[in-house]
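Methods: example folding runs. The two proteins below were folded one after another, and each record is reproduced exactly as written to the output file, sequence line first and structure-token line second.
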Amino acid sequence: MSSSAEGRARPRTVAGRLMLALLLAAGLARAAGAAAPDAYPGIGRAATAPELAAWDIDVRPDFKGLPPGSGTVAQGMVIWEAQCASCHGVFGESNEVFNPLVGGTTADDVQRGRVATLANGGYPGRTTLMKLSSVASLWDYIRRAMPWNAPKSLSVNEVYAVTAYLLNLGGVLPENFTLSNTTMADAQARLPNRDGMRTDHGLWPGKGLGNGGVPDVRATACMHDCAAPSTVRSELPAFARNSHGNLAAQNRSVGAQRGADTSHAPGAPSAAAAPVATPLPTASAAPTALLQQHLCTACHGMDQKSLLGPGFAAVARKYADQPDREAVLAARIRSGGSGAWGAVMMPPQTLPDADLQRIARWLADGASR
């Protein structure tokens, strides 16, 4: 072929050369596919048996996929208080961040299999045990997602124990119960809302899953005759505000009683949230390893407020004016509590005294990074 003919046959633009390259690659892929047994030759590889086992951990409502193991209610209580109570409450009553897990069920519901409170429009909320229809779903979720700062860190036996304790809190299982892959069906038979799930609606279309319900996409029920918006008919008068101190600082460590912040009028900035202008003393180095070892960073950021607690820098500013701030901070860490930063409770900390004093001293020095 002459040089002029070759120049005419070869694409002269970048786009043309790119298209030619794609066509050649597609042709080679088809040729390789005809000779190879794989559906997608050259892409990835077959998963190994251990990889499949690590991925395929779901547990069905009929308990298929449930691994062998067991855990007692007593064992679950120990794990719960150490890793669960700080977010879900000592008795599953939760706090302002997470919804309550326990409550709203009765012994009659356990016998009947339907939770009567679900039909009570005046009940303030819906707890997990009120809605749960399958113990396997609860077990599966705890195994995959809990604790929230270290998902999948619980062993199989620990998941059985925590599930048993949670069901015991709800009056579903007795204190001497051992939950296992062989007794899971016994727990399912006592679940308060085990017969409460329906499939005859549009969320479960298809033969075998429901009765072919039509999804509600028109929302006609809420387009007319709507309930009138509610209004607050009572509020704390100005002369009574803070007459007995800030109610938010007097919260109970357990239970649903959480006092409102009475240090300021509704809509006004909180006095506790105001920045402190007092300069901080020369700071010591951050005890990063200790903060991580004792899981302090699971609820507290260095500078910014997290979902659960204030940043370490904000804590240092709050106590900067107190001459005995190191001792005060150490006592607060040791005892835990709520109210100073909101209704979310910090559980009592059991870290060694040397570590406690090191963290308190760092906070007292200004929480420098």
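Second run, written to the same file directly after the first:
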Amino acid sequence: MQEQLLSRIAACETENKRLKRRLQLQNLGAIGTILLAIGGSAYANLEKVNEKLVTASLTVRELVVVDSNNVVRARVGGNIPPAVIDGKTLTRGGANNGVAGIMLYDRTGVERGGYVTFDQGDNVALTLDTQKKQQVFFGVGPTGTAALQLWEGDELLDLRADQNGARVTRTKAGTVSHQYPETSIKSGTCEYYRGGLRDEVPAGLSRPEVKKICERRFAAAACSPCLPPEK
């Protein structure tokens, strides 16, 4: 009798162990199912987020890029703000500051150049600057005329092609010292100078201001007949 009782107890313990293993397996399966469901839902949500991040077209007035120190390093805008050089605010493109394009800034936030279009004159230009001033200018006008200018101190090297011809000009202290080939001023350019360069500066420039500009592009002997002193 005792042996039969012990045998039944052993059988019950064996069956109990089997039931525990089954329950454990079922629980693991349920947990796995739940995890798969959660993972699938997260993946689906991630796909939705990614779909939201991908935009075929984005319209903005300005896009500003900052670095890890929150310093502005690049700016894309339809109306670029004025330049600040040595604490002085300088307008671009006349009184309305009409300039659009891309500007770059160094790690200190100082403007170092850009690729822009000007509302006044409709010129497009690439500029490269030191931390103090413009050093390189490469520009093209709306109907022609191209110029590449490089500065160092009071010296300027100007490679230009316009209605007066293609030429290389070296200027020192605002006056032409060398030009190849030597170029005379055509009547159309002369009239433009006499008009105060109003296509680029609507308010117009004074005769002395225009003459200084002329003498950075042509020999003084060519500018004088075109721009005699006003009476």
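Comment on the second run: The longest strand covers residues 111-118.
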